Amino acid sequence: MKKFQFRLQSLLKYKRHLEQAAKQETAQAVADVLTCEQRITGLQKDKTSATDQLESLMEKGMVAGRFNRYREFITAVDQSIILERNKKTELEKILDDKREALKQRTIDKKSLERLREKQAREYIHEMIREEQKSLDEIASLKTAREVNNEHI
User: Which of helix, strand or coil describes residue 97?
Assistant: First the structure.
């Protein structure tokens, strides 16, 4: 009995490769979003810290130039937070696209795998049918010989 050969095996292998690449791209996109969130959290901590320091120094009294530097720093941090939030929104859109691509790649791969399984089942069924046919033929020949020998 010859071994089952799936004619589209190379295509299935390629689809598996594409799915794996899409998984890696999705994982990278998730990491990018998380990194951006960490930067936003860090900037918010910096802003809170600077604001607390400014309030503490204002209670003690401070020079106007130093006050302006603190205000400029806090404003710059606010701008950075806005930029990072915008970047995070873009990264989340990219992540959604990567997830959708991964979903499609997985569907493509699974459909080929199902086809392979179906063809393998059909192949096995056909082999069993042929084997049964051979066994029936052998049994028929044996019975014919026995009947032929009894008549002699």
Answer: helix
Angle, nearest 10°, between helix axes 9-60 and 64-151?
Answer: 160
Give the helix ranges, DSSP H, for the chain.
9-60, 64-151
What is the value of pTM for the model shown?
A: 0.75
Cβ-Cβ contacts under 8 Å for 18 (sequence gap 6 or more): 105, 108, 109
Which position has the token pair 């059909």? 122
The number of angstroms, rounded, from the C-alpha of 145 to the middle of its chain's C-alpha atoms is 64
For the four alpha carbons of 50, 51, 52 and 54, in that order, the dihedral sign comes to: positive
CA distance 128 to 130: 5
Read off the tokens for 12. Answer: 């299935």
Q: How far apart are CA 77 and CA 55, in angstroms?
A: 17
pLDDT at 1: 64
